[in-house]
Design a protein that fits this description.
TIM Barrel, two-stranded antiparallel ribbon, globular, binds glyceraldehyde-3-phosphate, binds 1,3-dihydroxyacetonephosphate, binds zinc ion
Length: 311
Amino acid sequence: MPLVNSKDMFKKAYDGGYAIGAFNVNNMEIVQGIVEGATAENAPLILQVSAGARKYANHTYLMKLIEAAVETSGLPIVVHLDHGPDFETCKSCIDGGFTSVMIDGSHLPFEENIALTRRVVDYAHERGVTVEGELGRLAGVEDDINVSVEDSSYTHPDQVEEFVHKTQCDSLAIAIGTSHGAFKFKGEPKLRFDILEEVSRRLPGFPIVLHGASSVVPEYVDMINQYGGKLDNARGVPEEMLRRAASMSVCKINIDSDLRLAFTAKIREHFALHPEHFDPRQYLKEARSELALMVRHKIVNVLGCNNKADA
Ligand code: G3H
Ligand code: 13P
Ligand code: ZN
């Protein structure tokens, strides 16, 4: 099966009450670990690439790795630009073979966000590429931009119909209390399900996206701390909250920090147990296998998209 856009995938996810995992990729072992996990669970997959990942690994390298993933797995795979910062980056990804892009105008005034998103949609739709927009602003760190809690804002449900109607975007990321990175909540985790419900009521059948949705799996945080790391007060979104969101209108759940934690935890453990090793294949192989296990866990226990690849 060739690369696909997100249209059909999201329709099935919406109707089936599950979500697709959108996992960030930065190098070969990360792509391979995610694809191994999704293949074992026969799950549809979104591999997403940030502007920072393109800068780190090069667009063509990442695209070729993802093409290899499609060829070897036979799974339906979307290659998606995560947090597209401007029209030019979206255009470059569309011209370079991506099947889906996000244009992140969430920091702009409402009308400017609409105009920018619409410009990307017009370019993308002519080429069969789907577009994710964003309304509301998450706290946390992405691409070295740190959005403080004070500067974050929940999505206003009374803006979503106008936004979707005027932009014609295919999915919408909303802010309900999740945030990027490994330090999501100071106290008790809390998500505004009332906002999600109201958005869903106003946009029946329309796919919603959750960013900042890593659970910051405590086992990995503990492993990192045990082997010389220092991650105090790391805290993520509880899995039961994500499961609830996936059973509602949320069709795409973004996961990056959990991949980073699993990968790093395993490498730290490897060096603690084998200080004499220096062949990268020895520790990267273990980190890759750990990613595959983590992705399987997410697919089965959080997203519910296992065995949906041919649905
Ligand atoms: O939301 C951001 C993603 O976690 C990507 O992070 O910009 O550091 O690649 P990055
Ligand atoms: P996490 O930092 O919670 O993994 O979120 C990733 C994300 O939203 C990528 O766009
Ligand atoms: Zn994000």
